[in-house]
Specification:
With 329 residues, this protein is an alpha/beta fold. The protein contains eleven helices and 16 strands. The protein has helices at residues 42-49, 120-123, 127-140, 157-168, 183-188, 202-209, 227-233, 255-261, 271-274, 277-293, 309-316; strands at residues 2-7, 16-21, 30-39, 60-61, 65-73, 85-88, 103-107, 111-113, 148-151, 172-177, 193-196, 215-220, 234-242, 264-267, 300-305, 324-328. Helix 3 (127-140) packs across helix 4 and helix 3 packs across helix 10.
Length: 329
């Protein structure tokens, strides 16, 4: 029997529980792995609450990112074998698979042999953050040297990955955070500039930084009313990537900024990368190269044992962290 985290109704962190389940053997094209660490994501908290892109069929598992060791492979799996040290890539529906637990079964296409230089905690903290940022900034946005990018929710794992990616390209990462409390941590993480949006006018500050040109793009998981100010901070033909709904409020369309600056507002999710085999392979190479060069280094905010999965989700939703929240198994 395996210890598997599930929820039998949607709601807050308290609905999570550890159930004893026999997962059985992996099916065709699947991999069964012993889990050593889990990387938590806000998408999973939204799914647990019934506020995600897809509604959960309860009782439901959850979780996109895990690292561990392959125990068994199903028929048709040829590039992985028992004993391989691996991590999972978010390339599946949470209504079909979930990795929270001490064992998991996932599709083989969503499993990668991660660099041996990474700890299990670090390996569970790379794919969601780096591939999400890569898809928008690199694959779609073609961010280039000298261009400014505004990164909101900058202290999140994806925000920190975006800062690292921008620096690796020679771009100018402008971190946006609500207050000055995380300013020093964001500067230490590589932000060229930090703007506290509850204390400063983001559009005015970005115009100062860029010599009135505006930023080339903004990368925003918050959305809501703040989109108006972000649009005002962009330059001509700028791109505003909208990849989340953390504000929990309606998102207005910034019509006059969009018209006057020829802006593109682009809805985006990680699945634009992981849903296409070619895109995902290029993204994996980009991440591996960044890890090998030292440009990319996952930042872990706090770790919890599996028995404290409820507390880990409470901390995830507190917005107190700088970096990834990890659960060890």
């Amino acid at each position: 029997m395996s210890r598997i985290v599930r929820f039998h109704r949607t709601g807050g962190p308290e609905v999570l529980q550890i159930d004893e389940i026999d997962l059985g053997a992996p099916g065709p094209g699947e991999v069964k792995m012993k889990v050593h660490a889990l990387g938590l994501n806000r998408a999973e908290a939204m799914y647990r609450a019934g506020a995600y892109l897809e509604q959960p069929n309860v009782p439901s598992r959850l979780g996109y990112e895990a690292s561990g060791i392959v125990e068994a492979v199903g028929s048709g799996v040829t590039d992985l074998k028992p004993g391989d040290v691996v991590s999972t890539i978010p390339a599946f529906s949470l209504n079909q698979y979930g990795v929270y637990g001490d064992t998991t079964i996932v599709p083989a296409h969503a499993v990668a042999k991660h660099p041996t230089s990474l700890s299990f905690a670090e390996a569970a903290s790379i794919w969601m953050q780096y591939l999400t940022a890569y898809g928008a900034l690199v694959q779609i946005g073609n961010l280039a040297k000298g261009e400014a990018v505004i990164i909101t929710a900058a202290s999140s794992s994806v925000g920190l990955a975006a800062i690292q990616i921008a620096n690796s390209l020679g771009a100018i990462p402008i971190a946006a955070t609500r207050t000055s409390a995380k300013r020093a941590a964001l500067v230490e993480a590589g932000a060229a500039h930090v703007i506290a949006t509850e204390e400063q006018d983001i559009a005015a500050e970005v115009m100062k930084i860029t010599g009135k040109k505006g930023a080339r793009m903004a990368f925003d998981p918050v959305c809501g009313p703040g989109v108006e100010a972000l649009a005002g901070a962009l330059g001509d033909q700028g791109i505003l990537f909208l990849y989340g709904a953390l504000a929990g409020a309606p998102t207005p369309f910034p019509l006059f900024s969009a018209l006057s600056k020829n802006l593109t507002l682009r809805g985006y999710t990680l699945f634009a990368v992981t849903g296409d085999a070619g895109h995902m392979e290029r993204g994996k190479r980009f991440v591996f190269d960044g890890l090998a060069s030292g440009h990319f280094k996952p930042i872990i905010a706090k770790t919890f044992p599996l028995e404290q999965i409820v507390e880990s989700h409470r901390y995830l939703e507190s917005n107190a962290q700088v970096g990834k929240v990890v659960v060890t198994v």
